[in-house]
C-alpha cells in the first residue's frame, strides 16, 4: 500500500497540470495521454529520490503556509519602498549567520525556498556541517532579530512537520 501512495498523488497532480496547460479540447485521448505520460515520468523519477518525505501535522503545514504568504506580502511592500526610495528610507544590507537544528533535507529545502521567496532575503551559504545558514538581508538592522525571526517562524514549524 505504501508504494501506491508514494506515486499516485504525484501522477494525478502531473496529469491535472498537463490538462490545464494543454491547449486542446478535453477528450479521452488527451486524458489517457496525460495519465500515461505522468505515470511514466513519476515511475522513472522515483530512482532519483533516495527517500521520500514523511510530513506530519497538516494543521502546522496550513499555518506555516499562511505565515509564509503574509511574510512574503509584507516583504514585497518593504522591498518596493526601499527600491523606490519611499521617503528616504535608510537601509543597511548585510549578512547574518543563523544556527540551525533542522536536519531533514526536505525541511531544509523548504526553508531555503521560503527564505528566497521574500524579496530582500537570499540564502547565501550552507556549510556541509549544516550547523548554520548564511543569509543576505537587504535591510539588516539587528542580526539577532533576524536569527530569532527565522528560527521561530520557519524552522520550528518545519521541525514539527518533518522531524
TrEMBL record:
<protein>
    <submittedName>
        <fullName>Putative monovalent cation/H+ antiporter subunit E</fullName>
    </submittedName>
</protein>
<keyword id="KW-1003">Cell membrane</keyword>
<dbReference type="GO" id="GO:0008324">
    <property type="term" value="F:monoatomic cation transmembrane transporter activity"/>
</dbReference>
<dbReference type="InterPro" id="IPR002758">
    <property type="entry name" value="Cation_antiport_E"/>
</dbReference>
<comment type="similarity">
    <text>Belongs to the CPA3 antiporters (TC 2.A.63) subunit E family.</text>
</comment>
<feature type="transmembrane region" description="Helical">
    <location>
        <begin position="64"/>
        <end position="86"/>
    </location>
</feature>
<keyword id="KW-0812">Transmembrane</keyword>
<feature type="transmembrane region" description="Helical">
    <location>
        <begin position="12"/>
        <end position="43"/>
    </location>
</feature>
<dbReference type="GO" id="GO:0005886">
    <property type="term" value="C:plasma membrane"/>
</dbReference>
<keyword id="KW-1133">Transmembrane helix</keyword>
<keyword id="KW-0472">Membrane</keyword>
<dbReference type="Pfam" id="PF01899">
    <property type="entry name" value="MNHE"/>
</dbReference>
